[in-house]
Amino acid sequence: MHLIQVDSVQRWMEDLKLMTDCECMCILQSKPISIEKDEQNELILSSQYNTCDNLQLLLKRAWIISTELTRIAQKLEKNRWQRVHSMTVRVNCHVRSMMNECNTFSRSSSEEMHQLEKLLVDKCSEFTAFTERCLQTEDEEVLKSMKSCVNETLTTVAQYFGQLIELVLTQEAQNLLRQIELSGSLYVTESAVSSLFSLAQEGAHLCRIIAQEGGVVALFKICRQDCFRCLYPQTLRTLASICCVEEGMHQLEKVDGILCLADILTDTSHSEATHAEAAAVIAQITSPHLTFTQHLSSFLENMEEIVTALVKLCQEASSGEVFLLASAALANITFFDTMACEILLQLNAVKILLAACSDKHIVDTPYSRDQVVTILANMSVLDQCASEIIQGNGVQLLMEMLFEKSSSGNPAEAAACERVQQKSAVTLARLSRDPEVAEAAVKLSCIPRLIKLCRSPTERNNSDSVLVACLAALRRLAVMSPDGLEDSDFQQLVKPRLVDSFLLCTNMEESFV
Q: Protein inscuteable homologue C-terminal domain: from which residue to which, for each copy (predicted)?
């Protein structure tokens, strides 16, 4: 969950209310405040805001319980029985609190959920009783025999807890999808899609649940109705999140989602925001990091019109964010199928991308430059690409990319800068088989820059992949222009085997103090 990736003090402050409730209301918290049903509902509902808030509260509580169960296992391993018992009491309370919270915002609870709740409560009570008995004995043999029972009970509690959370989240996804399916109201549909998006942000497991319950089908149904046009951007953004899992991709294929996305991208009556979010879905489903894209057979049928629409979106992008989404989709497609590179050449994509790079308002981050240089690197395998690069002053751009540095020190940005350096070196190496490109690169002093990247680990952020790419580019340029290197550089960086030069350069990082 993304909850873990926040400042620890902020995390503690958010959890403080839950933790103090747990300590102070250990018994009363699991009992109704009022006998009158209406009064109880009125009181509880007044403290709840909406489905999204309720889910966040549930997930926070689930995170706390999961963390506590892990810590109990650790303390149990060290035979810290006093701590094990106190933490068991706390987990018991948290479980009861979570059930109360579930019951306040769940409109209907199934028989299966009631059974799971009873099993979990009974097992938690048994768990607490076990650990309390362990406190009352000091006999090592007795404790050793009881420890296995406690371990077994802990495992069962964790199992029941996991099943209950799975069931609650599944039912919540079903409720939201039922709202989308049955409601013709713009407001209700918008609210349900928003809650579904929040649910999808909690990780791949939640996306899997949504996909299995028919979330992709329901969302594409919205994207096929003109009356919901204003919801297209939000709906497509949710689809992009869900399609990070294989189940989402299979559902997309079943409902002809590619054809729907192609129709949206090529329909000029849609807003730029809608086109950008459709591009984001394309970028997601064609990601080279996914291993389950092979079944997207319908993508090839619509690839030419999708690529054409994406190039147009890059050319007309009004902001850096729109350009980033469109270029990311194009970059992924060039990995997905080599025919895409030929289509891009026919559409003068090189000229369009190079022109965009000269506009600092459009290509304004290393992430955008990463997408552009990825496209150029994949296109550079085509012989015709060299002349396009020369005409668009692309060698100059590649040279500038060799100087890419992170200004913020952010790890993600630093990694993007490394990719830009690596891919620009790869592109130079591939294009330098053309004498005209090699000559232009030499004139722009690419050789000294490549040598510095090889010899200075800090210039390349200690990246081995950048080093290998720079060595390859340097060797290609050295063949075309051997006079551009000093003898020591030639002897160390060009003449030996690539692996030997690599080892020489990486050993420069070592300290022998």
A: 61-513
Mean pLDDT for the chain overall? 84
- DSSP per position, 138-184: --HHHHHHHHHHHHHHHHHHHHHHHHHHHHHHHHHHHHHHHHHHH--
Helices 215-222 and 232-242, axial angle in degrees (round to 10) = 160
End-to-end CA distance of the chain: 42
DSSP calls for 367-380: HHHHHHHHHHHHHT
In a domain, 58, yes or no: yes
Evaluate whether 84 touches 131 at the Cβ level (below 8 Å): yes
In this structure, the number of other CB atoms found within 10 A of the CB of residue 2 comes to 9
Positive or negative, the CA dihedral 409, 411, 415, 416 is: negative
Residue ending a domain, choose from 169, 199, 233: 169
> What is the radius of gyration, based on Cα positions, of the chain?
29
Q: Is the pLDDT of residue 281 over 90?
A: yes
Using CA atoms, how far residue 433 sits from 148, 345, 382, 436, in Å, is 68, 19, 11, 9
Among 169, 194, 217, where does a domain finish? Answer: 169
> Does residue 38 belong to any structural domain of this protein?
no
CA angle 226, 230, 232 (to 5 degrees): 80
Q: What is the DSSP letter of 270?
A: S
Taking residues 318-338, report their average pLDDT.
92
The CA distance from 123 to 117, in Å, is 10
Position 496 confidence tier, pLDDT thresholds 50, 70, 90: confident
469 within some domain? yes
For residues 190-212, give the mean pLDDT: 91
Q: Is the pLDDT of residue 111 over 90?
A: no
User: What CATH number has the domain bearing residue 67?
Assistant: 1.20.120.330
Query: What does 445-478 look like in DSSP terms, one character per residue?
Result: THHHHHHHHHH-GGGGTT-HHHHHHHHHHHHHHH
Section 134-149 average pLDDT: 75
